[in-house]
Amino acid sequence: MGEKKYFIGLDSGTTGTTALILDENWDLVGRGYAEQKQYYPKSGWVEHDLIEIWENAKKAVSLALEEAQIGIEDITAIGLDNQGETVAVWDKNTGEPVYKAIVWQDRRTAQDADKLNEEWGSVIKEKTGLIVDAYFSALKIKWILDNVEGAREKAERGELVAGTLDTWLIWKMTGGKLHITDYTTASRTMLMNINDLTWDEEILAKLNIPKSMLAEIRSTSEYYGDTDPEAFLGGKVPIAGSAVDQQAALFGQACFEPGAVKTTYGTGCFMLMNTGEKMVHSEHGLLPTVAWGLDGKLTFALDAGVYITGAAIQWLRGGLQIIESASETEEIAKSVPDSGGVYFVPAFVGLAAPYWDQYARGTMVGITGGTTRAHIVRATLESIAYQVAENLEVMKKDSGIDIQVMKVDGGAVANEFLMQFQADLLGIPIDVPEITDTTPLGAAYLAALAVGEFNSLDEISAKWKRKKRYVPQISQEEREKLMAGWRRAVERSRNWAKE
């Protein structure tokens, strides 16, 4: 046995920050979590406090170190993953944010997106691989420059910098020395040209965003630099991996072969499929995205996002107050044989793939006098599985690959009712891994790969362990009947908020 090594995976997510510490055998030895507040200043607006996100990163790591009973100086390397399109703009001299973080779910730039799409939609798709949407970072940065007093002038003078949350955290961790992002996160901004992997001058000019604000784009797994002990818990730790959360989860699930698919069940639900070295353009509104960039070579993925899944369960708890915790939904759902004909389409902020309808709104149909709380809870869980099933269908069509199995991760995989219903709707087995926090696990793997702990992706694959498999238990006929009902319900939710 050599000396003990420890790796940190730090997941800065939407609802909170998770830190995992894994030893050299890739067993989990410490975990820390810090919840964060969601701010909704106006309808359709979603914000986070950047200082809180930074404090939560330190808090989660401290809690994990405590549980592992080790010090920061024992850490071999740290990898980060971030919530993707959420964006920050801060003063590079003081480190103070000029505005709160505008979160990926935020819809304030929806009309700007419509306008940009009409003028430039095909150009942007050609350059970035993305469909113009308020979801991505570009229009959020532009909004801050246009609406925060003095921001544009300061940006023109080179005093402001912008970045996604990886950029913000790495900047803070290194005491302002590193201003970087990686290929995966850069590809979610709608500003990176996916053909030559650089910030696109034309899009920047079109949106009037000074290029000097943007971070340097680096590989997903490489040694970037060390944390500054004064800034980060007294430790000088190599930062060696960074990715968007969904890509980190794809990596953590060892989906290294084309056709390998994973779905992460979080606030939203995100299904990614490795498509190898070629970018698959979708006919159905799925997003071609960068899975990771290693040694200057990109691996691509198809990304199907569902905005509201776990968030619908949170709504049952917080908004409707008909459950006390997410964990009780399984028993409640199992207490009735079916949803009693109730379908719930949780389009709180519109519908993502495959509809891309930003004006759809939440809809519950099929309610009768016999509908109970249990039916509503069950219909809410089922809505998660229906949305995932629709995305898997289009993924098969777009890629031409017949998917044999789906790996799953995230909080909701603990819900056995949901996982079984999901397997039933998909008609293929679902595999749950031993470590379901695959997002920070993937971030830790990326860092370990960069510092030479692994020599190949095959060595990482060998570490993946399966905990449980769910096999479909219903007929194709039953499956089609359920899906047809769901599609009828979706139709009724569409285009609702359009004035």
Explain what you see:
This protein has 499 residues and is of the alpha+beta class. It folds into two domains: 241 residues, ATPase, nucleotide binding domain (Nucleotidyltransferase, domain 5, 2-Layer Sandwich), CATH 3.30.420.40; 214 residues, Nucleotidyltransferase, domain 5 (2-Layer Sandwich). Helix content is 34%, strand content 24%. It has 15 helices and 23 strands. The strands form seven sheets. It has a seven-stranded mixed β-sheet with strand order 17-18-16-15-21-22-23. A six-stranded mixed β-sheet has the order 3-2-1-5-14-13, sandwiched between helices. Strands 4-7 form a two-stranded antiparallel ribbon. Strand 1 and strand 2 form a beta hairpin. Helix 9 runs antiparallel to helix 11 and helix 11 packs across helix 12. It is globular, with a radius of gyration of 22 Å. The mean pLDDT is 94.
CATH topology of the largest domain: Nucleotidyltransferase, domain 5
**Net shape:** globular
Question: Biggest sheet: strands, sense, closure?
Answer: 7 strands, mixed
Main sheet: which strands, in order across? 17-18-16-15-21-22-23
State the CATH superfamily name of the largest domain.
Answer: ATPase, nucleotide binding domain
Q: What is the top-level CATH class of the largest domain?
A: Alpha Beta
Please, how many domains?
2
Number of helical segments? 15
What's the architecture of the largest domain in CATH terms?
2-Layer Sandwich
Average pLDDT works out at 94
Query: What is the straight-line distance between the termini?
Result: 67 Å
Beta-strand residue fraction: 15-25%
Task: Output the radius of gyration.
Answer: 22 Å
Which class best fits the helix and strand makeup?
alpha+beta
